[in-house]
Design goal:
Length: about 350
């Protein structure tokens, strides 16, 4: 549970049975990422406290409410931080993965019937993104859970709940990186490294990783980065360095940090005639982006990508099966396996830049 400004506290919580069209899941493993840290710092929009955070987990269905047909008790599942109700106009639109039930359009701090399934010492506790994976048991609507292959190792495939598909899909779905192209990836955390895997799988010939923490460079190179640079090593702005390195700028630039200054730099490092800049990191709430619109006039494109553009219910099971067939290697990102009781230490490691992905197991 969490109250802004304090570290997480581990509490005994009562988890009510699932109501109609809801599913109760026993969480087996959960990761943490930059977004969870935004929640803890109070910079994630529209969170109510006290809350059980966590949005990158994997588990087993414990029970289902009336009318649930997509999963049954015993199924291995991944909770979806981006729902796919399958019925709204956005779900029916093949060009977006942003179901109208997502937290950007409606609050997910309570179940759809506006009540909570969590109680602690008699007091209501809020849900997070409807899935709250930092709980041994958690209840979610059936639009936010999907069955995966029975053979999937839950302590690895929990990364398919957010970090890996977010980065990988930004490259393969949103940018549609072309073979032989040049790419720049700003931020080499779990998300940025997954972007690199997507660029590499797409056949990019030059992939430049950018980070202020040199400790991330070795993994980035293992995953396909052809070179890695630290903006602090240069006198001139990093966008000028990238334009010089590539002649006229990169074909694709990805921002995977969640900062406005690095998004502006990513935009300015793109090829003016045909470059594509993809915003992957979530900028601070209320921030504004300022740039010369002439940059876009000659053909540069600025795009956003949430959860890698994947319609999650359709795609996550296929990605997990692809993982079992060794098509992706997201487990390279796992630097720490910790017991859940050490979740605060995990956040310390993430903030200190000492970990990429921490996985917590019950
Ligand atoms: N310039 C370059 N790199 C930076 C800068 C900067 N100014 N600031 C931070 N970084 C690097 C960090 O050193 C780190 O390696 O960005 C990386 C961010 O990685 P993580 O904190 O591990 O975050 P991650 O889980 O990858 O998520 C990145 O994506 O999910 C969204 O908005 C969310 O902020 C999150 C972002
Ligand atoms: Zn929908």
């Amino acid at each position: 549970m969490k109250t802004i400004g304090k570290s997480l506290s581990i509490e005994e919580v009562e988890v009510a049975p699932p109501k109609a069209r809801e599913v109760r899941v026993k969480i087996v493993a959960t990761g943490i990422c930059g977004t969870d840290d935004h929640v803890l710092k109070g910079s994630f929009p529209n969170v109510d406290f006290p809350v059980i955070p966590g949005h990158e987990g994997a588990g087993i269905v414990e029970s289902v409410g009336e009318g649930v047909t997509c999963v049954k008790p015993g199924d291995k599942v991944i909770p979806l931080c981006l729902p796919q109700c399958g019925e709204c106009s956005f779900c029916l639109n093949p060009n977006t993965n942003c179901c109208l039930q997502t937290h950007l359009y409606q609050s997910q701090n309570l179940m759809p019937d506006k009540t909570s399934r969590f109680t602690c010492k008699g007091k209501q506790v809020y849900h997070f993104l409807w899935i709250s994976t930092f709980s041994e048991y958690t209840v979610m609507p059936d639009s936010t859970v999907v069955r995966i292959d029975d053979a999937a190792p839950l302590d690895k495939v929990c990364l398919f709940g957010c970090g890996f598909p977010t980065g990988y899909g930004a490259a393969v779905n949103t940018a549609k990186v072309a073979p032989g192209s040049t790419c720049a990836v700003f931020g080499l955390g779990g998300v940025g490294l997954s972007v690199i895997m997507g660029c590499e799988a797409s056949g990019a010939s030059q992939i430049i990783g950018i980070d202020i923490n040199k400790d991330k460079f070795a993994t980035a190179k293992d995953l396909g980065a052809t070179e890695c640079i630290n903006p602090q090593d240069f006198e001139k702005p990093i966008q000028e360095v990238l334009v010089e390195m590539t002649g006229h700028g990169v074909d694709y630039a990805f921002e995977a940090i969640g900062r406005v200054d690095t998004l502006t730099a990513a935009l300015a490092s793109c090829h003016r005639g045909s470059g594509v800049c993809v915003m992957v990191g979530e900028p601070p709430p209320g921030s504004q982006l300022s740039f010369d619109p002439m940059m876009l006039f000659t053909g540069l494109t600025l795009k956003g990508s949430i959860l890698g553009g994947w319609k999650m219910k359709d795609s996550i099971p296929k990605l997990v099966t692809g993982y079992l067939q060794k098509k992706f290697k997201p487990d390279v990102l796992i630097t720490h396996n910790l017991p859940f009781s050490e979740i605060n230490e995990g956040f310390e490691l993430l903030r200190a830049g000492k970990s990429i992905k921490n996985i917590f197991i019950d």
